[in-house]
Design brief:
heterodimer, A: 541 residues, alpha+beta, five-stranded antiparallel sheet, 18 strands, B: 123 residues, alpha/beta
């Protein structure tokens, strides 16, 4: 109706000026506008009028009729296109001041019949221009929204020693309801989020942004993925629009042990690819935002070296080809199984989607893919430095002991006793044996506390190698990546004054107990090698 | 570790409070050791003697605990001594320079005699 009024307003003109007045009046800026309300009875009259209407003779009670009369309009010729009133051709009195003749009326009627389609075309062109402008404005706004949404997605992939991570995100529209996130925690833990809001476009994008913020806050405070999802669900539920929900998988990776702890709020099950094949990893839970008080099962898998996980949203498996066949889970599972995994898997899957769906394919839903792969065996425990590569020469070094202790406080004492037993046959002087024991205990304690962060299930490996000349004890933890600092003499005065913590003696003690101390690190391990000469050299007795 | 035991008993000889340590001086000893120190200082002794006769193991965390006690003692201007350390741990007290700040005696009797004398190191 607004559009109708707009048209009428543009077409209602005041009376044509008389010839004498014409030169000045034509220069007037803008003639007064006559508004015709949509419910004005004059509208129905013009709609059904059979030719020009003598305005001055109108007997109806109509504000518009009065306004037209006041504006000096004598004749109003309805312009109709396809039965719809699209405007009026308004005429003032004839210049001769005579009444309009029948011929004039016929001429005007013919003219109106010719003019109406042209006016309609002009109106449509104007409407389209206005719509195009509106569309452009909305597209610009969506572009801004898209940029904002992009800032909510990770800008960089986490770089973690021993791990390869890949991610792909493609919304079906300018903005999407899918999301993924990486949350770095201290001590080599990484949070991984993949989510999908039950809608597309702007509404989904708004819920996505909210969910992401709530999840980040919850993950910051809670360790357990199940508890994090429970918290997010309870916070999201009161605020999410009805009929919307979010599926979300939240996992925490221990990059040192390869343990992946996860909980799943109704999201697609990730695929775990191992040497034995591909399997879904499952944890049950309702999508976020549906019902308060939900509990989320928490599961754990271990990623061994070379193994990988694919997290994925609906967009890939629910893509259709021109025959309306769906890409589907079985095909995806097969592809995951036939590819070595890692970030290259994403390109492989997208290429498969492209050939499945064809060049004309229009993406139906947002697509999110995240891959996580543990590097293959080069960093495994079995790949610790070989005995002949470090200190004990290739001169018949014997392995006197090779064992592990769990990373629990106090276990360094057990390691110390085992080493002491293992060297019994080497005739080491008692004072040197005491030094050796202290060095082993301190190196093991350092590995438990600093390398393995007291995680009981991470072992400390202790190897004892003896040649004729020397004894090497290798203490290895899972704290690779960050080098072990150089031992420095602690500043005892500062410690006694309270300016420094009283702690920090371990590496200093080790260095003072041994003939040599060497530290090697790779991406996943530290090894402290303690060297004792066996020929009496360096024995301070 | 479950089999890590530590006990600390406080005795007094004149102006000296003796803390007799028994077991492993490591992280597990912290609470007991600090409680013993608090007990020892209740009567305002001028000196504290740590008796290590029944200690077979001190690790770097234990060293840190002793540094902490020594810092407290110095703050309240109490002398601190140690006695009955094994040769190995006496060496460690020297390497760590703890021996620069607390006199080390071979046994309790000489420590108490030393406590009576103005600050002088036996070693």
């Amino acid at each position: 109706m607004t559009r109708f009024l707009d048209q009428i307003r543009r077409l209602v003109r005041p009376a044509e000026p008389t010839a004498a007045e014409a030169p000045t009046i034509r220069n007037q800026a803008e003639p007064p506008v006559v508004d015709i309300a949509p419910n004005d009875p004059i509208v129905a009259l013009f709609q059904s009028a059979d030719g020009p209407v003598d305005v001055q003779q109108l007997g109806i009670d109509s504000p518009a009729a009065r306004a037209l009369k006041e504006a000096g309009v004598r004749l109003a010729v309805p312009l109709r296109s396809q039965g719809e009133l699209i405007g009026l051709l308004n005429l003032g009195p004839r210049l001769s001041e005579q009444d309009y003749l029948l011929d004039d009326l016929k001429l005007l009627e013919n003219l109106a019949a010719q003019v109406a389609p042209a006016v309609r075309v002009a109106q449509l062109v104007r409407e389209q221009q206005a719509e195009a402008q509106e569309r452009e404005r909305m597209e610009q706004e969506l572009q801004v929204a898209r940029l904002i949404q992009q800032t909510l997605l990770p800008k960089n992939l986490p770089e973690l020693p021993g791990w390869k991570i890949g991610a792909f995100y493609q919304p079906a529209q300018a903005v999407g309801g899918d999301f993924y996130d990486f949350i770095a925690f201290p001590d080599g833990y990484l949070g991984i989020v993949v989510g999908d809001v039950s809608d597309k476009g702007v509404p989904a994008a708004l819920v996505m942004a909210t969910t992401r913020s709530i999840l980040r806050a919850a993950a910051d405070r809670l360790d357990s993925p199940g508890q994090v999802l429970q918290r997010v669900n309870d916070l999201l539920h009161p605020d999410i629009p009805p009929n919307m929900f979010v599926t979300c998988l939240y996992a925490v990776l221990d990059t040192m042990s390869g343990h992946l702890y996860f909980a799943n709020a109704g999201h697609n099950l990730p695929y775990l690819r191992t040497e034995g094949g591909v399997r879904e990893i499952r944890a049950t839970g309702m999508p976020l935002g549906l019902m308060p008080g939900m509990v989320y099962e928490e599961q754990r898998v271990v990623l061994e070296h070379g193994e990988s996980v694919l997290f994925h949203s609906d967009g890939l498996v629910e893509a259709h080809n021109s025959r309306r066949e769906m890409f589907g889970f079985p095909k995806l599972m097969g592809l995951v199984g036939s590819h070595p995994g890692g970030a290259g898997l994403i390109d492989h899957l997208l290429a498969e989607l492209s050939s499945f769906a064809g060049p004309e394919h229009e993406q139906e839903d947002d697509i999110t893919l995240v891959t996580l792969q543990r590097s293959s065996a080069s960093h495994s425990k079995r790949a610790l430095p070989e005995p002949d590569s470090v200190t004990v020469g290739n001169d018949g070094a014997r392995v006197l002991a090779d064992f592990e202790v769990a990373s629990e406080p106090g276990n360094e004492r057990a390691a110390m006793e085992r080493v002491a037993e293992a060297v019994q046959g080497l005739a080491i002087a008692p004072s040197r044996l005491e030094r050796l024991k202290t060095a082993v205990a301190e190196a093991t304690m350092n590995a438990i506390e600093h390398g393995n962060k007291n995680q009981a299930d991470l072992p400390v490996t202790i190897q004892l190698l003896a040649s004729d000349r020397e004894l090497a004890i290798r203490v290895t933890d899972h704290g690779g990546g960050k080098p072990i600092p150089e031992p420095e003499a602690p500043d005892l005065e500062s410690k006694l004054d309270g300016a420094q913590t009283p702690r920090g003696w371990g590496l200093f003690l080790i260095k003072n107990m041994v003939d040599d101390m060497r530290v090697t690190s790779d991406e996943t391990h530290h090894t402290i090698e303690l060297v004792f000469k066996l020929e009496g050299a360096g024995d301070g007795e | 570790m479950e089999n890590s035991h530590f006990e600390a008993a406080v005795r007094r000889r004149e102006g000296t409070a003796i803390i007799e340590l028994k077991g492993d001086v490591n992280a597990f000893a912290e609470e007991t050791l600090n409680a013993a120190y608090a007990e020892a200082t209740q009567t305002g002794p001028s000196a504290i003697l740590l008796n290590f006769h029944n200690v077979a193991y001190i690790n770097s965390t234990g060293i840190a605990l002793i540094v902490g006690l020594l810092a407290q003692a110095r703050k309240s201007q109490r002398r601190m001594f140690a006695c009955d350390l094994s040769d190995h741990y006496r060496e460690i007290f020297q390497i760590t320079r703890l021996a620069d700040f607390m006199d080390i005696f071979s046994d309790e009797a000489s420590a108490l005699a030393g406590a009576a004398a103005p600050a002088a190191a036996e070693n």
